[in-house]
Design a protein that fits this description.
With 214 residues, this protein is an alpha/beta fold. Helices cover 29% and strands 23% of the residues. 42% of the residues are buried.
Length: 214
């Protein structure tokens, strides 16, 4: 599939005492490693945006992008797109939009799938489902949506599949001070894609949920 996957791990970890959330352990491995393992079989290129601990993230990326994590190599391991800090021209720790902007300028593929570093239970069919929906609806962005309560639903904006043609919109929004991914996507031609497995999109925002989630 002509799509790159990017792990967004550039946050400050405020809700976990300033720790690097993507490197916190979950089931014996860093949380970010679980997310990379889920992404790798689904994408043609794999990269990480991280503002700290670049060497540790580079080791995780090498494991998945080199094929050593999937010795049978079926599907083939993705090409490594490297570990990048937020573009130095952007304000530091400006949230996931800064990471998305950085990734888009470092990606040769036209389509980019983003994931946060604290979503280790991701289902294995997410990208294919988003891809089909985007092409079916003629959308530039496809966003997963899961049930939330009895009648509500929740969009997982940072898990979006985006075409690079939204880059000028992203840049304009960022320059104008916008930092909410959902507000950015609302400016684009986008589609919502339903998934029944809400637990698969659960993320860990506190030390309590990180240690208690299994």
């Amino acid at each position: 599939m002509a799509c790159a996957g990017w792990l967004l791990a550039g946050g400050e970890g405020r809700r976990v005492g300033g720790q690097d959330k993507g490197l916190l352990p979950w089931r014996g491995r860093p949380m970010g490693d679980h997310v990379l393992a889920a992404m790798a079989p689904q994408v043609g290129g794999l990269g990480i945006v991280a503002n700290r601990h670049a060497d540790r993230y580079r080791a995780l990326l090498t494991h998945h992008a080199s094929g050593t994590a999937h010795p049978v190599a079926e599907p083939p391991a993705p090409t490594s797109l490297g570990v990048h800090a937020d573009d130095p021209g952007l304000p530091p720790f400006s949230g996931p939009l800064a990471g998305m902007l950085t990734a888009m300028t470092a990606t040769p593929q036209e389509w980019i799938w983003f994931l946060p570093c604290d979503m280790p239970r991701l289902p294995g069919d997410v990208l294919a489902t988003l891809w089909r929906a985007a092409h079916r609806d003629g959308a530039d962005v496809a966003v997963p949506c899961t049930p939330d309560g009895l009648d509500g639903s929740r969009h997982h904006w940072v898990c979006a599949l985006m075409h690079k043609r939204v880059l000028p919109t992203l840049q304009t929004a960022f320059i104008s001070g916008e930092r909410k991914v959902g507000h950015l996507i609302a400016r684009c031609k986008w589609t919502s894609v339903s998934f029944a497995d809400a637990a698969g999109f659960a993320n860990f925002n506190t030390l309590e949920t990180e240690h208690g989630g299994d």
